[in-house]
């Protein structure tokens, strides 16, 4: 290469196209994809590139670090930096089964984490970060929770919130606080498996109430309440896991009205509300004294925070909930709760949420293009529900997908009773690299065009 050719892959940097170091790394990746750069090509020294782009050296250093993280570059000591040869993927398994947020588009998560932790350690009392917190969250953590819920409810009284170590812990504590061993819990026939697991472990009986495309049927809920005298009703009304359907406002109002008439508690598990496009108001809006509302950061930001906010209006019920929570979880981890608080109050959480939303929508468009005509979805959230052709069962397809190096989740993992749907859930966020997600979806699409009898794994 001549010196001038070292720069041929670089586009001009745009003022409003995201962080400049990411623009540089993206340009490098695009140049590899279109053949402008090839493995073994030498790249400009960092100082030369910084001068050429009129940016500081730190920006270029971060760009090269990001490119190395993507396995695009390799250093060869004094000889300089070169485009890396493709790495052989020893593990071809592609996880379409775990429902986690995708890496946020246009957001440097590593930098966000470093800056957030630095602020926490700078401002917080280190002793408080390493001791017990038994009150369900500090004042600042509850205020952060109120701010997080503001787009959902408007103004929320911070003292009505409890900070929990994740939604699953909150759900288990609500079951302990609101029901007795042997009590019946009601849920939709296809629902989040965590409620089935918690009910089973805690000695409660889970009964399915039929649903249509809009969610649980109010008349059948009322009938089940009179028949079973349930301790609580579990609902996940927004981008429901696993069907990705969103319950319309009228159905929410009707279910709230049934709960009030039958004096039964609703647990509204709502992890995806902030990812949805203009969702209806929560059920808790229509029956505030009847509904305990769970909002977790795990699906909108990152599971590693292990922070959820639970809105419970009644003070005595809040105390029972706290007592139940302390019996097995005590508290959210102070360090991650402090980080969540810092991010929410300084606006970083909002930026991260928007990055996750943007990336999720890009992935939905990809899934729609590859699986066109095979599923209906709103184009938001973290997962899709795929109805299968009659010649496949969920179990058959899951086995075939596993042999093809793909993890999916069959419908029976979500069944609470009655007939199991002939469907699978596909999660779009757990594969971090978009190109590998595309590969996984294409493999799955190819499988769906075959019949089970024509698909066979090798026998060795």
TrEMBL record:
Keywords noted in UniProt: Aminotransferase, DNA-binding, Pyridoxal phosphate, Transcription, Transcription regulation, Transferase
CDD domains assigned to the protein according to its UniProt record, in alphabetical order: AAT_like, WHTH_GntR
Keyword flag DNA-binding: yes
SMART domains: HTH_GNTR
Transcription recorded as keyword: yes
Gene3D superfamilies the UniProt entry points to: Aspartate Aminotransferase, domain 1, Type I PLP-dependent aspartate aminotransferase-like (Major domain), Winged helix-like DNA-binding domain superfamily/Winged helix DNA-binding domain
Occurrences of domain HTH gntR-type (ranges): 18-86
Domain of life assignment: Bacteria
GO molecular function, one term: transaminase activity
Leader sequence segment: none
InterPro entries: Aminotransferase_I/II_large, HTH_trans_reg/aminotransferase, PyrdxlP-dep_Trfase, PyrdxlP-dep_Trfase_major, PyrdxlP-dep_Trfase_small, Tscrpt_reg_HTH_GntR, WH-like_DNA-bd_sf, WH_DNA-bd_sf
PANTHER family: HTH-TYPE TRANSCRIPTIONAL REGULATORY PROTEIN GABR
Family: In the C-terminal section; belongs to the class-I pyridoxal-phosphate-dependent aminotransferase family.
Protein name in UniProt: Aminotransferase class I/II-fold pyridoxal phosphate-dependent enzyme
Organism: Pseudoduganella guangdongensis
Organism placement in taxonomy: Bacteria, Pseudomonadati, Pseudomonadota, Betaproteobacteria, Burkholderiales
